Amino acid sequence: MDNPPEHWDIAILGTGLSHSILAAALAQAGKRVLHLDENAYYGGDAASLALSELIQWAELRSSSNSDYDASNHPGSSQYMVRQRSRFTSVSYTFGDSPPDMDLRKMMLKESRQYSISLMPTIIPAMGDIISALVGSGVSRYGGFKLLEAVGVYDAGHIRRVPSSKEDVFKDRDMSLIEKRRLMKFLIFASGQFEQAPELQGQENTTFLDFLRTKFSLSATVSNAIVFAIAHCSSPSEHTLPALTRMRRYLHATGRYGNSPFLIGHYGGAGEVAQGFCRAAAVKGATYILGRAVESINHVAVVPPLPTSSEPVESVPIGPHFSIQLDGFANPVSADDIVTAPDYSGLLPPGSAGGAATSSSTFTATLTSASGSYGSEVFLSGCVAIVDRPVYAAPMLPPQHLEGQVDHSESDTLTPSITGPDTSFVVFPPGSIENGLDAPVFALVTGDGTLGCPTRKYIVYLATIASGTSPPSTNLPPDPTHTLGPYLQRLLAIRDPAPPAQDEGDADLDPGAITTFWPLSGGDAKDTEDDPDQW
User: Fold this and answer.
1) Exposure string for 425-447, b = 16+ CB within 10 A, e = fewer
2) Runs of H (alpha helix) within 62-175
3) CA–CA distance from 205 to each of 83, 385, 531 (Å)?
4) pLDDT tops 50 at residue 370
5) What is the rounded distance in angstroms from the CA atom of residue 54 to the CA atom of residue 112?
6) Relative orientation angle of helices 239-252 and 176-190, to the nearest 10 degrees
7) Which pTM value belongs to this model?
8) Rounded distance, CA 81 to CA 367, Å?
């Protein structure tokens, strides 16, 4: 491609959520922004992909792909090398048996009707991301719907978590005493608890212990609060940050409806990232997608322009970075560079870390939503496309506990036969036999999110798990083994009142396609800071 030399104020490598927000802010401030991504789509590790794109994504990052020709793929780039070292054991299957070609062909015909997120996300109805969406005007580029149900897996059932005071008192699993204790805690958690006597000296105790010792809540209710309401990623999370986060969620309930969380249309986070890219483009940002970055060089000395010449925007007038793109005859240049972590290896010496100025000094680091990467913990994910919802309703069958109000038969809850279109289910640590010591989170979205065809559902699973032992050979866990049993438990929950079914349909496989992947060496810190992007 015979391109003329061009110069920008700043080049941003990677179109992930944080980098897209940065591009929009800089473009709004009048900076000339060049936004690059080796992928042919927006969003980076948070992208929303069609089904065929997800399969291609998995194949490019699969270390077992022996048919992969680096000379004809962006896999020869440093970016893709880093991606393939981080996304290990990537695999996908159609159905339980050997590859079902008829099923594959049928689903690929509907490929463009899917919008599958690489970073499944629920968004608090109050918080920084909502403020950014509304304040920047990006909210008009996308749509959202309320999360309909939150549940906790318990002994083969999903116990639905109450979303309001009315739901608490309608719950038939808790005694009146437990309801009063829970309401006392919720009032405490929604107020100014920092100086409350219950919290003094307890800030760094685990949140689970705090709930049990200070409010005498049962293990079942405590698990629901810690993992399904406060969204803790570990049973050892401290009390103060968990309470602070929970207060924000409690205050968010009622802003848009009877739920504190929103689900984005068309895959969520990827669509939000693309919205910020659109806002940047409207303000003059330039986008180049699908081109590998071959090299980045620092140019310290620039010959001065003739005195009679006026400075022009396309010519650098001082120290800058020169960026060579695959297929471009001439390099492009920028005064400053910000990169996503997987591009940082391209930066010249002295500017490592993710951001650099034209003086080649480190200024800041921006990490993608999937976090920075260490060597002790790993974030594993799974996507499954199924043909029915996960039934998070009704509540578990009534238990006759001491102090329980006796309801008449006419007051019995009527079970749902459709199931929620969107639901969030938590598996507490140890909730299944031989399970993980960390919680597993499941997000289920239906066609109401515009992310899949009618009567199809996308199930996302994610967890943070330790690697193999000993530490010297620390390897990411196989997500098929760690998350597969949880997917099976989730899909084993049947409709409490299913419609009539032909006898021949009884053994239909509920999982049409399943994709597993781990982010090797994922640092849990970022997930704890913003646990709703998991």
Assistant:
1) bbbbbebbeebbebbbbbbbbbe
2) 78-86, 101-109, 128-136, 165-170
3) 37, 40, 19
4) no
5) 11
6) 90
7) 0.80
8) 18
